[in-house]
UniProtKB/TrEMBL annotation:
<keyword id="KW-0645">Protease</keyword>
<keyword id="KW-0378">Hydrolase</keyword>
<dbReference type="InterPro" id="IPR008753">
    <property type="entry name" value="Peptidase_M13_N"/>
</dbReference>
<feature type="domain" description="Peptidase M13 C-terminal">
    <location>
        <begin position="472"/>
        <end position="645"/>
    </location>
</feature>
<feature type="signal peptide">
    <location>
        <begin position="1"/>
        <end position="19"/>
    </location>
</feature>
<feature type="domain" description="Peptidase M13 N-terminal">
    <location>
        <begin position="42"/>
        <end position="400"/>
    </location>
</feature>
<protein>
    <submittedName>
        <fullName>Membrane metallo-endopeptidase-like 1</fullName>
    </submittedName>
</protein>
<dbReference type="Pfam" id="PF05649">
    <property type="entry name" value="Peptidase_M13_N"/>
</dbReference>
<dbReference type="InterPro" id="IPR042089">
    <property type="entry name" value="Peptidase_M13_dom_2"/>
</dbReference>
<keyword id="KW-0479">Metal-binding</keyword>
<comment type="similarity">
    <text>Belongs to the peptidase M13 family.</text>
</comment>
<keyword id="KW-0482">Metalloprotease</keyword>
<dbReference type="Pfam" id="PF01431">
    <property type="entry name" value="Peptidase_M13"/>
</dbReference>
<keyword id="KW-0732">Signal</keyword>
<dbReference type="InterPro" id="IPR000718">
    <property type="entry name" value="Peptidase_M13"/>
</dbReference>
<keyword id="KW-0862">Zinc</keyword>
<dbReference type="InterPro" id="IPR018497">
    <property type="entry name" value="Peptidase_M13_C"/>
</dbReference>
């Protein structure tokens, strides 16, 4: 087997030219080859065989998976656009590109410094004329008695710091996705790190000096507060709907005050909110009141600093300054970044070519899934089959996250019309907070609007800092294909079909199939809640299929595994089927068999080690996998029983 795998790697580079500008096919093949570890056995460890070298190759850049790779390439391309904007003689300063450029240049003119943390804290005070207890007080006594934790939390929320003490988000209602709701829950990641890290933050911010006799007591109290919060009841799966008045009665937390500060407007006591984790929220106030205001404020400061670092709001020394600044624009002005990126890289008919290639591929897969539904392996009734087919036919695929309106540039300019920036800003923290406050304001405003549908769908998300680079599903029967993945070596209309289908095709159909998970099956072809398929997860044939996947006992995420298994089978069988609409001609640029190219390229979607179980489940349930890689009958990834979904 070792000799075979080494031979395959040699075959990969046969036919590659020495051209400075490799063709789309050469670029895609080179991407596969560089990521492979030919010492691994594909029949036992396809993860390492297909992409085992990726992490080592990108260790310095801290790239771990395909999304990181795509994001890194897109950020570099956005940097080119921003640099070209700097060379332009005239730019309308009130436009989105003018404001994005102002942000970028302010960042370029700012040196990495700890002072940025102080600037952020000064510009986000916990109360009116009330500073945080940092060294900037210059010997003055901090008026601890005036500190109110809930007001401080609400003021931070206006800048998008939403994962501290409790979370409040505006999301699509999970029962009626046509409307937005206020959603409350416990934080999703810990605020506090180890004792030394907490001490370093407190000393760095100047709350106490390193050798101050009270420093150890303060750190101990902060960690005790965190322990008490962590020991509150865990988040249960059950959700609640309560009015503000009912919530306040049960928790003692003045939610009306918090929402009024966060949204900038009052709320009626009868206004209803959605809650997950009521036990945590019921115990929160009592825990906080056990500690002094200085302990609570210090705890929050540590959370702020961690949030600033996680959101990459502070510049790092020793890192490429231009890259950091283009990353900042991409993360925090993603609406402007998308239109700038699209208009530069998809002009002169290029967008239409890419869209046509993506839509044609999607239609082939939709037809293939319709055939599977008609075979009715899950023994659906005629009415249930009709329901599922209508859901599938209603799905649209769109390039980019922006709504499909005639003038996207105008839409983006209108979006940023109320973003006020200084004409010649010099304070990076101030311009960043202006941008974050603007973005948060628009995100929260979605509460007062119905959800746009179809290609007009547009939603701002609180976690927009984790930018999607692969196709993703939205509860408006929409699959968004980001522009990021529409670049070499990941995708090109000029690539051989084997590359297009195995990478983008798989990730696109996987996103489509999200709409057919048991939870999402309760929504009809217009995204309305329907009880008709509410019990789909109990369908005997579906349960049997997912139980088949569970035989490995490697993970409980059966619905996610089911999607990967079905998506791979669907694209693979569609590509290599007798009535295939795709080219099955052996490429002239390599002698590597087409089926091996397909599976190696597909595996890039799941290259990260955390995805090993998902990749294993997908390939070990593909009928051809063992034959394609000459696996013995007892190989781990070549079991006798293959699970079938749908």
């Amino acid at each position: 087997m070792k000799e075979t795998t080494r031979f395959l790697c040699v075959l990969l580079i046969i036919g590659l030219t020495q051209s400075r500008h490799p063709s789309p096919d050469e670029a895609a093949l080179d991407f596969i080859y560089k990521n492979m570890d030919d010492t691994a056995n594909p029949c036992q460890d396809f993860q390492n065989f297909s992409s085992g070298n990726f992490e080592a190759l990108h260790k310095e850049a801290k790239l771990y998976d395909l999304q990181d790779s795509i994001r890194d390439a897109s950020t570099g391309k956005l940097q080119i656009v921003l640099e070209k904007l700097r060379d332009r003689v005239f730019i309308d300063e009130s436009s989105a590109e003018g404001k994005a450029l102002r942000f970028y240049e302010t960042c370029l003119n700012t040196s990495p410094s700890r002072q940025l943390f102080f600037s952020f804290l000064e510009l986000m005070p916990p109360g009116e004329d009330l500073p945080w207890p940092t060294s900037r007080l210059r010997g003055s006594r901090w008026p601890e008695e005036r500190f109110e934790w809930l007001e401080a939390l609400a003021r931070l929320r206006r800048f998008g710091i939403e994962n501290l003490l409790f979370r409040m988000n505006v999301v699509q209602d999970w029962v009626d996705p046509n409307h937005f709701v206020v959603y409350l829950k416990r934080p999703t990641y810990p605020t506090i790190l180890d004792e030394n890290s907490n001490k370093d933050i407190l000393v760095g911010i100047g709350i106490l000096k390193k050798n101050h006799p009270s420093i150890n007591t303060l750190v101990a109290d902060i960690m005790a507060l965190d322990d008490d919060l962590q020991n509150l009841p865990p988040e249960e799966s059950r959700s609640y709907t309560l009015s503000i008045e009912e919530f306040e009665d049960q928790t003692g937390i003045q939610l009306s005050k918090y929402l009024e500060i966060s949204f900038g407007r009052p709320f009626d006591p009868s206004f209803e909110v959605k809650i997950v984790g009521m036990g945590y929220l019921e115990g929160l106030k009592a825990v906080i009141e056990k500690y002094t205001n200085k302990v609570v404020a210090s705890y929050m400061i540590i959370g702020i600093v961690r949030s600033l670092i996680q959101q990459q709001l502070v510049l790092k020394t020793g890192s490429n300054h231009q890259v950091q600044c283009s990353t900042a624009v991409r993360r925090h002005m993603e609406v402007a970044s998308e239109v700038l990126y699209k208009d530069y890289y998809f002009r002169q008919g290029r967008l239409q070519r890419y869209d046509r290639a993506v839509q044609q591929m999607f239609e082939v897969f939709r037809a293939a899934f319709l055939k599977r539904i008609e075979k009715n392996r899950l023994n659906l009734t005629a009415e249930e089959q009709t329901f599922v087919k209508q859901k599938l036919r209603a799905i649209k695929v769109r390039l980019g996250s922006l709504p499909n309106v005639p003038d996207q540039r105008r839409f983006v300019n209108d979006f940023y019309s109320d973003l006020e920036l200084e004409k010649h800003p010099t304070n990076l923290a101030k311009i960043l907070l202006n941008i974050l406050e603007h973005r948060t304001r628009h995100t929260l405003k979605q509460l007062d609007r119905p959800t746009p549908k179809g290609n007009h769908f547009f939603r701002l998300e609180e976690l927009g800092y984790i930018l999607q680079t692969e196709p993703y599903y939205r509860t408006s029967n929409l699959v968004v294909v980001p522009y990021d993945i529409l670049q070499e070596p990941y995708f090109s209309p000029d690539q051989h079909d084997v590359f297009k289908v195995s990478l983008l095709g798989f990730s696109m159909i996987r996103a489509v199939l999200e709409n057919f998970k048991p939870y999402n099956m309760r929504f009809d072809n217009e995204s309305n809640y329907s009880e008709f398929m509410e019990n789909f997860g109990e369908n005997f044939a579906y349960v049997e299929a997912t139980n088949c996947l569970d035989r490995s006992k490697e993970s409980s995420q059966l619905n996610e595994h089911a999607i990967n298994v079905l998506a791979l089978k669907l694209v693979y069988d569609t590509y290599f089927g007798e009535d295939s609409k795709f080219s099955q001609e052996q490429p002239s640029f390599t002698k590597l068999p087409l089926k091996q190219i397909f599976l190696l390229n597909f595996a890039q979607n799941l290259m990260y080690k955390w995805n090993t179980v998902r990749l294993n489940q997908a390939v070990r349930n593909l009928n051809d996998f063992g034959e394609v890689f000459n696996c013995p009958a007892d190989a781990f990834l070549n079991p006798e029983t293959k699970c079938e979904i749908w």
